[in-house]
């Protein structure tokens, strides 16, 4: 309450208030000076208010005393409960953690005044989550309270923490929060097989690296702590089978490493071990982190194809071996217990020429055609062995046949020898060195001998000297030669080898007599120079000449065909009264095609324009248009057609092909009526086509066609 000493109680003074909350939170009685609060005050919103009050004269409005200021402090009461910074906390710790392991810290705040009483003093306690966890009352740190908490038993925990002010005393306010705690996995569980023995079956035809079966050891851990590696530690199938780990399912996949054979072994026993790949040393005391199991694999018998005794066969045969000679034998057997008989054959895709054949019963291979080493040294064929009872069961084997050489080819010159001798040559002068080759093979090297043929040994003008190194030299026997007397000498030379049987051949050396200078350089020969000029040869010139002739003939034929095409009819006028047959395999419009000729001609033959030129060809000025005599009104149509035919046959301007003038008009009031063979008679037998033969050579084709039809009917 405010009161002024000047206030005499007569109502002449008035109290006014200003400052924080004046007129809103705080009001003053202007007569008595009482200050009152209009609302409930909250210290957490504003703890201090500063107000100013003054007494003024009601009539003049002037202050009677100086303005006075006063401060209103709000005293705190415990009206705010503690609030956590998060509604929900999430935390995780490894399983099997020690007691007292830090989990997470929670924090709560109180809006009350911490300097006034215990309204803001917060104490933490655990409402839910015991006996697994505990919380420090002053710090809010949550710790583990139970030893060896196992994730495999329980993974999720929900803890409720309470924060209470007033130091936890009675009457204090409180707030709660939830903490979700997850136990993370550690490798504290070894893998374990659910059964001690596994059994699988595998056909003996199982391909390599194919799976036989799957086994799995269970591990209660997760992620990398549950990763398992499988291995085969012992057993009689240690080298026959392998095992790998499926990374997705952590299963062990047993696969075949070597080919199985039921007849050799039909049961394998393996010991398989499963081991954790990530072991935690802290938990080794729990035991070895691995387990083992026994796997029995039963091999099943299947019908297998025959097996050859070798993966490939190599045989040798001489090229002069007689036909049907056996060169070798292949052997195959059925590996099954039934031992089915085997049939042999040659894959003809590998022996298209059928050079070899095979005995289907015993597998002996023999020749069916002559061999030639010089043509083909190796023959690579494939032999097929199939079961007689089940031909689908077959196998193949390559057979490599080498053809051995025999001396069946005579030696011959290495090249064609054509040399010259100078007219002024001296005796015993070397004019040519000879060498020879042999298609046959020689293990010790070829040794050729050269000699003149017996018929030329005594009478020849040249001698031959064998150099004993597979070469020979031709020497002159006399001093001078005359090319006008003899221009060319043919020297027969006999070449022999030293193999068995000895082969020899007679080759001819051509020697021309030429004029030479004093140094022995050839100047000219009688017949033709040995060294060809750099120009074109005679054969090339003849070929060029033939090409020119062919080109000229082609041009002439093209010009003739073009000239003939100019005279071909171009039916462009509807007034043309003829149908021209261009080719006999072209189907026309028939009788209904009335646009190809002028119908008015039949009705009034005299109406034909005598001076009208033909429109289907280009007019030629050499021939003047002919005037056609006008037909009489009572002229018979047959006579009219015959007259037209005669004119066309004698017309020098007619093109050189058959031309058919058709006068077949059907319509009301037609003078000539229909001349068509299709409509003028009722049956084919009533029509006589003999008159076509009288129409001249241009209608011979039609006469033959219709005449043959009549003969077919008669027959």
TrEMBL record:
Membrane topology: Single-pass type I membrane protein
Annotated GO MF terms: beta-catenin binding; cadherin binding; calcium ion binding
PROSITE patterns attached to this UniProt entry: CADHERIN_1 (PS00232), CADHERIN_2 (PS50268)
Intracellular or extracellular location(s): Cell membrane
Residues spanning the membrane: 540-561
InterPro entries assigned to the protein according to its UniProt record, in alphabetical order: Cadherin, Cadherin-like_dom, Cadherin-like_sf, Cadherin_CS, Cadherin_Y-type_LIR, Catenin-bd_sf
Gene3D superfamilies, alphabetized: Cadherins, TCF3-CBD (Catenin binding domain)
Gene Ontology CC entries for this record: adherens junction; catenin complex
Cleaved signal peptide residues: none
A GO biological-process term: adherens junction organization
Keywords: Calcium, Cell adhesion, Cell membrane, Cleavage on pair of basic residues, Glycoprotein, Membrane, Metal-binding, Repeat, Signal, Transmembrane, Transmembrane helix
Top-level taxon in the UniProt lineage: Eukaryota
Residues in Cadherin domain copies: 4-84, 85-193, 194-308, 309-413, 413-523
Biological role stated in the UniProt entry: Cadherins are calcium-dependent cell adhesion proteins. They preferentially interact with themselves in a homophilic manner in connecting cells; cadherins may thus contribute to the sorting of heterogeneous cell types.
Protein name, as recorded: Cadherin-6
Source lineage: Eukaryota, Metazoa, Chordata, Craniata, Vertebrata
């Amino acid at each position: 309450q405010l009161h002024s000493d000047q206030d005499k109680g007569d109502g002449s003074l008035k109290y006014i208030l200003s400052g924080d909350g004046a007129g809103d939170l705080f009001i003053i009685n202007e007569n008595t000076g009482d200050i009152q609060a209009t609302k409930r005050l909250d210290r957490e919103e504003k703890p201090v208010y500063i107000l100013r009050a003054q007494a003024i004269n009601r009539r003049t409005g002037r202050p009677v005393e100086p303005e006075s200021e006063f401060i209103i402090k709000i005293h705190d009461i415990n009206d705010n409960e503690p609030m956590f910074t998060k509604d929900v906390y999430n935390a995780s710790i490894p399983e099997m953690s020690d007691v007292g392991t830090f989990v997470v810290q929670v924090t709560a705040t109180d809006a009350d005044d911490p300097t006034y009483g215990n309204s803001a003093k917060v104490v933490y306690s655990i409402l839910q989550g015991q006996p697994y966890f505990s919380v420090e009352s002053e710090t809010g740190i949550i710790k583990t309270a139970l030893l060896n908490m196992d994730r495999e038993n329980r993974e999720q925990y929900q803890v409720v923490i309470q924060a209470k002010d007033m130091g936890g005393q009675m009457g204090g306010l409180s707030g709660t929060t939830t903490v979700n705690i997850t136990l993370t996995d550690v490798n504290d569980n070894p893998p374990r097989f659910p059964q001690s023995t596994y059994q699988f079956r595998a056909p003996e035809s199982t391909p390599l690296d194919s799976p036989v079966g799957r086994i799995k050891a269970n591990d209660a851990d997760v992620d990398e702590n549950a990763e398992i590696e499988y291995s085969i530690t012992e057993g009689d199938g240690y080298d026959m089978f392998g095992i790998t780990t499926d990374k997705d399912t952590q299963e062990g996949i047993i696969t075949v490493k070597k080919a199985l054979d039921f007849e050799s072994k039909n049961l394998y026993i393996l010991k398989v071990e499963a081991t954790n790949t990530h072991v935690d040393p802290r938990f080794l005391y729990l035991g070895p982190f691995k387990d083992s199991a026994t796997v029995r694999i039963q091999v099943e018998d299947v019908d297998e194809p025959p097996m050859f005794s070798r993966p490939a066969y190599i045989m040798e045969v001489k090229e002069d071996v007689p036909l049907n000679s056996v060169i070798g034998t292949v052997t195959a057997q059925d590996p099954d217990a039934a031992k089915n008989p085997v049939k042999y054959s040659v894959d003809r895709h590998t022996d298209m020429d059928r050079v070899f054949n095979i005995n289907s019963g015993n597998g002996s291979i023999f020749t069916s055609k002559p061999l030639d080493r010089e043509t083909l040294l190796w023959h690579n064929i494939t032999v097929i062995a199939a079961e007689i009872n089940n031909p689908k069961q077959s196998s193949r084997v390559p057979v490599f046949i080498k053809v051995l050489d025999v001396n069946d080819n005579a030696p011959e010159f290495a090249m064609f020898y054509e040399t010259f001798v100078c007219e002024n040559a001296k005796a015993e002068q070397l004019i040519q060195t000879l060498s020879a080759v042999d298609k046959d093979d020689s293990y010790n090297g070829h040794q050729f001998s050269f000699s003149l043929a017996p018929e030329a040994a005594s009478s020849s003008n040249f001698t031959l000297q064998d150099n004993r190194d597979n070469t020979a030299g031709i020497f002159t026997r006399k001093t001078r030669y005359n090319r006008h007397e003899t221009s060319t000498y043919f020297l027969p030379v006999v070449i022999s080898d030293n193999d068995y049987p000895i082969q020899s051949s007679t080759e001819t050396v051509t020697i021309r007599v030429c004029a030479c200078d004093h140094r022995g350089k050839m100047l000219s020969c009688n017949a033709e120079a040995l060294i060809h000029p750099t120009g074109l040869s005679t054969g090339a010139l003849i070929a060029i000449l033939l090409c020119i002739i062919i080109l000229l003939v082609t041009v002439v034929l093209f010009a003739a065909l073009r000239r003939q095409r100019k005279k071909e009819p171009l039916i462009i006028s509807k007034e043309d009264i003829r149908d021209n047959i261009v080719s006999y395999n072209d189907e026309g419009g028939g009788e209904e095609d009335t646009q190809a000729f002028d119908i008015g001609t039949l009705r009034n033959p005299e109406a034909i324009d005598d001076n009208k030129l033909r429109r289907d060809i280009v007019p030629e000025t050499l021939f003047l248009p002919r005037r056609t005599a006008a037909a009489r009104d009572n002229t018979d149509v047959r006579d009219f057609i015959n007259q037209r035919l005669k004119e066309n046959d004698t017309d020098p301007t007619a093109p050189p092909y058959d031309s058919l003038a058709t006068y077949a008009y059907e319509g009301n009031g037609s003078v000539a009526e229909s001349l068509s063979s299709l409509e003028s008679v009722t049956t084919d037998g009533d029509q006589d086509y003999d008159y076509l033969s009288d129409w001249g050579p241009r209608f011979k084709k039609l006469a033959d066609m219709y005449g043959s039809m009549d003969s077919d009917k008669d027959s």
